[in-house]
């Protein structure tokens, strides 16, 4: 299914948007050997709002089609936390998905 955006491009062309929902941030936690890490808790706030926490096993999409500043923390018992901030932008149709590979080192 193709959805046409209600605005034109720079040359008056119509922009064709898809109906897919794109992930804002895809988190893929790794251990100190760069191997996928299971059972990681990923917490995030968008634009300083309410904190949300999800369980992440090797890879997870945090939220869909939400732009803004993401403050992220990955944590797991027995490992040091990893934190960062990512700015997710959008174009006329979708967010521009960002990837994050937090490395958690064993304590």
Structure, described:
The chain has 107 residues and is mainly β. It has a single domain, classed as Sandwich (Immunoglobulin-like). The strands form three sheets. It has a four-stranded antiparallel sheet with strand order 5-4-7-8, with no helix packed on it. The chain is elongated. The N terminus is likely disordered.
Structure summary:
The chain is mainly beta. Helices cover 0% and strands 44% of the residues.
Provide tags for this entry.
107 residues; disordered N terminus; mainly beta; three-stranded mixed β-sheet; Immunoglobulin-like; single chain; four-stranded antiparallel β-sheet; 9 strands
Give the strand tally.
Answer: 9
* CATH homology group: Carboxypeptidase-like, regulatory domain
Average pLDDT over all residues: 90
Which CATH top level class fits?
Mainly Beta
> SSE order, as H and E?
EEEEEEEEE
Characterize the overall form.
elongated
- CATH topology, which one? Immunoglobulin-like
Number of domains: 1
State the helix count. Answer: 0
Low-pLDDT stretches: 1-9
Cα-based radius of gyration, to the nearest Å = 17 Å
Quickly give the structural class: mainly beta
Largest sheet: 4 strands, antiparallel
Write out the strand line-up for the largest beta sheet, numbering strands in chain order: 5-4-7-8
Termini separation (Å)? Answer: 49 Å
Report the β-strand fraction as a percent range: 35-45%
Approximately how much helix is present in the residues? under 10%
């Amino acid at each position: 299914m193709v959805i046409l955006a209600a605005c034109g491009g720079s040359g008056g062309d119509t922009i064709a948007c898809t109906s897919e929902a794109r992930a804002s941030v895809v988190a893929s936690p790794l251990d100190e050997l760069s191997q996928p890490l299971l059972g990681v808790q990923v917490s995030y706030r968008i634009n300083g709002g309410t904190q949300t926490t999800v369980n992440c096993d090797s890879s997870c999409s945090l939220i869909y089609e939400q732009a803004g500043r993401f403050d992220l923390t990955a944590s797991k018992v027995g490992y040091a936390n990893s934190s960062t901030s990512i700015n997710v932008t959008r174009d006329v149709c979708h967010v521009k998905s960002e990837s994050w590979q937090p490395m958690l080192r064993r304590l």
